[in-house]
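Quick question, first post here. What does this chain look like in 3D?
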Amino acid sequence: MHMDHIARIFGIGVDKQEVSSLVEPLGCKLFDLPFTYLGVPVGANMKYKRHWAPVIERFQSRLNLWKSKTLSLGAVLGSLPTFYFSLFVAPTGVIKKLESIRRRFLWGGAEEQKKINWVSWKFVTAPKEIGGLGLGSLKVLNLSLITKWIWRLKVDSSGLWSKVIKAGVQDELKLFDIDMEEIMMKKIGSGEETMFWLDKWIGDSTLKTSFPEAYNLKCNKHYKISDRLQNGFINWEWKSAPRTPELVSEINLLASRIRDFQIAQGNDKWVCTLSSDGIFHVDRLRIQIDRWNLPTLETPLKWIHEIPLKVTCFMWRANLEKIPTACALLKRGIQLTSPICSYCENAEEDAYHVLFRCPMAAKVWEWVLSWCDLPNVHFESIEELLKFTAHWGTCEKKRRNLISICYGTT
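> Answer (accepted):
Ran it through. Tokens below.
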């Protein structure tokens, strides 16, 4: 056996002296766990926060105040921990620390300097499609990336890698409260690899869940589809004849559901119900989890690529009434001489007054709408403005131009 100068020897579950005695004969060096190989911690218990120090340090070095104007908001805030998150389940303390760093970065603060967090973090992380800023939760990102391993275990459980994953992280995956059966189902070929009762292959759930009384009446609950669907006929093999009207009705409903189902040639395979191509995509799962758990606005903002991100972000905040008006600042404990609008001196300065009700704002809107050859509409809120622009006209290009003008005016 050839041992070159970079060879290392490790002892796992053995006395260190015994390992040391092998160093000289083998011509290698003694090395301790944990260590880092290709940027990945090896032999470290990633349940402990201290082993996540490289990720936290990278966050702190990249997302600091002087770089906040040069980094891509969505890309950097969501992608920095991806490498670690795709391999390990992050402890709750690590998630909280990283989210606090992202939060400070977003609102312009630093380690020793705190700024006002204008919008609840659940709205910041929510997808744009339901009214959020679209940054995404780090916990959900970690969940989605780890879930990809579950998907791979489903579609290819024969390789050596699957045995390693099962031994290493399968127990940790149970920490996440998500039922994989909700987003996966079997696409049937010959039916030889799919459990009739226990796999989801027809409908929105397993037949065991949909027809519990019929399931309890079966002798063998672990047979395959190919064992029961033969030449268009169903071979039931009940423990006893169905007696109650409810049970007979349930069995008839089950029979009607699968009566026209035909098995075919080819292998059975798992498909992901979140995507049209049947393949698991991390982003699709992230969006779906956010839709399940995060608040939805009645009128989400329309994000247009041609409009500067800074302008659209302001519109997003204004729609939530989270801009630094006098009333908003007073609510957050900022001392001001008066909440009254300094221009008209007739009303309190809240978001709607600044943007629409103040005589100066109303006049600006009158000029802009006149220039667009539109009637003078008196908007009472950003939501009214969004509804007006979303349903105006029949030409998509002109509608997008109007939205751009209104966003810029606001």
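The longest strand covers residues 184-187.
The first helix runs from residue 16 to 20.
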